Amino acid sequence: MEYQQKHLILLESMFFSTGFEACKIAKELGYKVTLICRDFKLYLKNKPLNQHPLGLADFHIETETNDAKSLIQFLENYYEKKPISWITNFLRLLC
């Protein structure tokens, strides 16, 4: 059986609190981490990626995350290239 590295998807996660901690812990546990969001500029706020907590993730992907059907299709295609162990998010909803 071929070894596959553990792979965590963080989907639109709050990266200044729980999302950052989850990424850090996952990496300590040997996971590769992919951060998927709709618009990195909203997170980066004019900081370069290498000077921002988002830079801790191994892979950074921008795709539409507000359309469930297209997001599921994207994840199915992505899974074929990089098998996924877990998908989660840490999101603060403002109502």
Q: Could you explain the architecture of this structure?
A:
The chain contains 3 helices and 4 strands. The chain is of the alpha/beta class. Strands 3-2-1-4 form a 4-stranded parallel beta sheet, with helices on one face. It is globular and about 30 Å long. The termini are far apart.
Largest sheet: 4 strands, parallel
Helicity level, as a percent range? 25-40%
Structural class: alpha/beta
Shape: globular
Count of DSSP-assigned helices: 3
| Estimated share of beta-strand residues | 15-25%
Biggest sheet: strand arrangement: 3-2-1-4
Overall strand count: 4
Tell me the span between the first and last alpha carbons: 48 Å
Q: Tell me the Rg in angstroms.
A: 13 Å
Mean pLDDT across residues: 81
String of helices and strands: EHEHEHE
Unreliable residue stretches = none
Task: Give a quick precis of the structure.
The protein is an alpha/beta fold and 95 residues long.
List keywords for this structure.
alpha/beta, single chain, 4 strands, 19% strand, 4-stranded parallel sheet, 3 helices, 95 residues
Strand and helix map with partners:
Layout: E1 7-11, H1 18-28, E2 32-37, H2 40-44, E3 59-62, H3 68-81, E4 86-88
Parallel strand pairs: 1-2, 1-4, 2-3
